[in-house]
Amino acid sequence: MEETTPTPSAGSSRDVIWAPGSGSRGLLPAGMNFSTQVAISDQIESLEVAEMVATVGAATPVSAIRDAAAKHGLISSGVLPDETGTIGGLFSDPREGPADPATGRFRDHVLGIEGVRGDGSPILSGGTVVKNVTGYDLIRLMGGALGALGVITRLHLRLETAPACWKSLSFGFLDRPEDWSVLDQLRRMPFEPYLMSIKPVQQQVQLLLSGTQRAVDEMASFIRETVGDMETTEFDPEQMISFHRKLRSRQGTALRIRVGWKHWRSIVTNEAGIWRAIFPSAGYGLLEGWQPGSDLDFLVEKVASIGGSVTAEDVEACERSGIPLVHPCASDSLTRSLRSLWDRDGKIPWQGDR
User: Fold this and answer.
1) Half-sphere exposure (CA, 13 Å, Cβ side) for 190?
2) Angle between helical axes of 177-187 and 213-227 (0-180°, round to 10)
3) 3-class DSSP assignment, residue 213
4) Is this model's pTM higher than 0.85 or not?
5) Helix, strand, coil % (nearest 5) of the chain?
6) What are the phi and psi torsion angles at 294 (to 5°)?
7) Does CATH number 3.30.465.10 belong to domain 1-162?
8) Looking at per-residue confidence, does 45 or 330 come out higher?
9) Residues spanned by CATH 3.30.465.10 within the chain?
10) E strand or H helix at 337, and its extent?
11) Which DSSP category does 263 fall into?
12) pLDDT per residue over 222-249, tens digit each?
């Protein structure tokens, strides 16, 4: 059965004012408001169950597409269960997070976009299917550009089947060589848990499994053979929202550390702060309880020396630490030159571009 609910196309105007998407957590300073004369729909324009795709206006609340997809046993790829704000805001967020520790950034799952450039000309890239795509990948270029390259008005999203079963497994972790040896074995498993979270302060490792009941039970049995004693908890899909909220840091408290798996054991015992959690599958950890100073500077230098990066989780953490929201990359020069068309007076405190 397919559900298709068409709505009128969003209008546009040639007189465009810079307009970042709303909803990205802690991304812009409080009180920074912008307006636009581009008409942006806040409706789900179509949801095709058989094709597992949806077309939504960029101002559509994330909760709306989540609830609509859930009625058909579907979820939007790359969207955390507790995510808030708008679809356009999530797509425009330049940070690696908010990101699903398992499936990664939401913008990497977007099939197509429509929008308006600074001169009023249209933007169209991708579509509702991925085939016969030629030319530049504007979706990857504009995703995370925070509106610097144009205003996104409509997005085509990939949907996937919602897991039928969720199970949490937890066991002790004391930062000993034998503990890391067990984790090495888990990292070599023939399957990837939905989430693996190492919590040094709680001295605990938590694995979250998802899938059919049979698949989850088989994965849990395989893990038990490697780990030994562990606590097991069944999750109701509705409980996932609360679960993910507990994983998030409080605004202004966290830095995101990204290093390869083999380097974690060398930095977990640092004195620069307190590790909230490390997500090996996603390649990052959240550091809280830090203070600007020599200890933090030393950690940043050490992470850089092993090919990693340190970024702030939100604007408040960025201002306190002096560490940018986004790690610089080669595309910075391009987005910097293009965004000058949108922010001629330098009103936006840009801390990075990707």
Assistant:
1) 4
2) 150
3) helix
4) no
5) 25, 25, 50
6) -65, -40
7) yes
8) 45
9) 1-162
10) helix 332-339
11) G
12) 999 999 999 999 888 778 888 888 888 8
